[in-house]
Amino acid sequence: MPVSEPKPSAARSRTWRVAGVLLLIGIEALLFGYSYPFFSLALEKKGIATWLIGLNASIAGAGILIFGPFVPWLIDRMGLRLLVAAQFALSLASFAAIFAFDNIAVWFVARFVMGTCFAALWTTTEIWLNGVVDDKNRGRIVGASGTLYAACQFMGPLLLSGTGSTGSLPLVVAMVPLAIGVAVALSIRSAVGEVDDEEESGDVHTLRMSLTLAGSLIAAAFLTGIGETAMQSLLPLYGLAHGLNDSGASRLVAVFSLGEAVLIVALGWFADRHGRRLTLIGCAGIAVVSTLAFPFVMDKAFLLEPVVFIAGGTVSGLYTLGIVLIGQDFRGQRLAVVSTGFAMAYSAGSVIGSTPIGFLMDLFGAEALPITVAAGFMALLIFLLRPGQKKAAEVSLE
């Protein structure tokens, strides 16, 4: 019958929108993992001072803090499709500029532009994915996107090991997936009436409840940024302080990162089945318990890695569950504003994270790491369990 013809086509179109955004996330993660070691190694080969190489990395990481406030405005003016395509195109142009003008000033300007685009892509592709998935499978798909991101980021350095860091080959190899990203972004077209085109009502009460809920999510992003960065950078020192050798201390970070990559899929599935706010609270509670357990399992090999694995998954899971809840509760411009604030809070936590906790470790010893991280998540847990916060969440979920 004629009326049934459009249904398979509509389903295929929706499937491509989700798959296309996931492909963009994979490309972004691949180039993110590729660019950090590439710039460090390439600049080292040029005889650049180590502090300048560090500065080059820092200006890349600061991008979202500078550009973030403008993201919602740009989404409103350009739309996600054109904005994401432009970010891939600017990243492509940055590599092309290095290829054409092998000058140190160009390397720094290109790194800043590229770092800003990658950071903004991280935010805008999350917003886009939240807009095109259906709410029933939101947790599963957003969780899977986190695992996809981790896997593709892991592949970046492997790709660089094949291309090397000198000559034109690594630049050309980087430009190819970025060009594909431009083409894919432009090919994803919104359908009228789908989730990514919905607008929020202007009800003040709903807005107030939404902002109340968003406050806890932004706090979760900030604390996750602190905890995740501190663990990634200081966990090796914690292992050394407990008598592990360099290999064993580095392995702690690998196990922590593996937990980040694997457990977020399970957390997304659990959130879809058993409630997202409940999962967020449970995740915060497990993050507290697992990090506090570190001192008690460091001398027990059969317990150490499982505890570190669980800590990695739950600490990272708080970020993923926050993204899921934002997609569930916000639409249109509010989705862009809250998602951008969420990403900026995480980035701010990442920038702040290691320095004060490292200072506390110098003052009070290695146990300051798990205790400080656990204290932050305990504060979040208490905030989430407040009666007023629970009521606000329930109203926003109706």
Automatic annotation (TrEMBL):
Subcellular localization, as worded in the UniProt entry? Cell membrane
What keywords are assigned to this protein? Cell membrane, Membrane, Transmembrane, Transmembrane helix, Transport
Record's PROSITE patterns?
MFS (PS50850)
Tell me what topology the record assigns in the membrane: Multi-pass membrane protein
Tell me where it mainly resides.
membrane
Q: Where are the transmembrane segments?
A: 16-36, 48-75, 82-101, 107-129, 141-162, 168-188, 209-231, 251-271, 278-297, 303-326, 335-357, 363-385
Any single Pfam family the record assigns to this protein: MFS_1
The Major facilitator superfamily (MFS) profile domain, residue ranges: 213-398
This chain's protein is named MFS transporter
